[in-house]
Amino acid sequence: MNRNLQTECPVLVTGGAGYIGSHAVLALRDAGWPVAVLDNLVTGFRFAVPDDVPFYEGDVSDADLVARIVSERGTRAIMHFAGSVVVPESVADPLKYYANNTAASRALIAAAIEAGVPHFIFSSTAATYGVPEISPVSEDAPKVPINPYGWSKLMTERMLADVAAAHPMNYAALRYFNVAGADPQMRSGQSTAGATHLIKVAVEAAAGKRDSVAIFGSDYDTPDGTGVRDYIHVSDLAVAHVLALEALIADPGRSLTMNCGYGRGFSVREVLDTVDRVTGAAITRTLEPRRAGDPASLISDPSRIRATLPWRPQHHDLATIVAHALGWETKLAEMRNAEGDNG
Ligand code: UD1
Questions:
Q1: Is 129 among the residues known to form the active site?
Q2: Of these four, 109, 323, 335, 338, which has the most CB atoms within 10 Å of its CB?
């Protein structure tokens, strides 16, 4: 893309200190986009944001702060990652999810409209589909979430569609499948303690931070009986955001809703086998009952993103995803040891 267009489009990344947001910041910065971060550091980490990126600590629902950032930075696009992402927590505390994901997004979208920001990119999720009847699942499949997390995101998608029809703003809603891995240069990765995602849990076990990995359900109607998911490398996902932004700028009259996945699935056992292969050791596995609300198989139909964006994933090999996740786990342990040594 034309470099002038980039410098004319400063981007505000909310949740830029979090897992996926920090990778988007790196992808934007690597491609020469001016970028600033807004994050309340409740689940994010200050170290995940490069020192040369302007950082604002605060909430996305703080309209005055968002107005100030847009005016100071000349923001022309918002990438909105900030939010809560733990599915079982959303079942136990739905109002937290409707506050942090739906109401906070409404406030941010209102601030964006008020300030005349023309482009908005939203982190949505495959959880908007619920338990799909057909897999691979396409964007037009029924959206019947089975947890408040999925609903909180789907409601925001609906708001964006209505707002884009009424105001001079276009948007991209990107529905992520299972995001994993870490920046290949090890500048960021999944740092949340107590994360429940399979690949994170598995690399923690491989790094000796856990004794074993529980396989939740081995009686699914899948080739080996365990759950199948479409794992996407976080850096490929980050690049998809940059390309989506370019598409929004190129055609301000068009908004986009796209699955972000590779269109192929791996079972829990295949993931654990891959971790074992990458490390040359064997993780201890235990068989547990199915986890409530888990679909047997969730694989994206990536036709739309492939047809719409010049997106060429670089890290789709599962062993690469696992190797990067492991590399980050090692780096995280070193960072935490160094912190401990320094008191
Ligand atoms: C869910 C959400 C997704 C969200 C993610 C992280 C849905 C449809 N998707 O993905 O939007 O981003 O949580 O909050 O709700 N597994 C084990 N042992 C473990 C962990 C997981 O066997 O210790 C299995 C699960 O049963 C599942 C697969 O591994 O079959 C992936 O699970 P996980 O990584 O937790 O992600 P999802 O539940 O697919």
A1: no
A2: 109
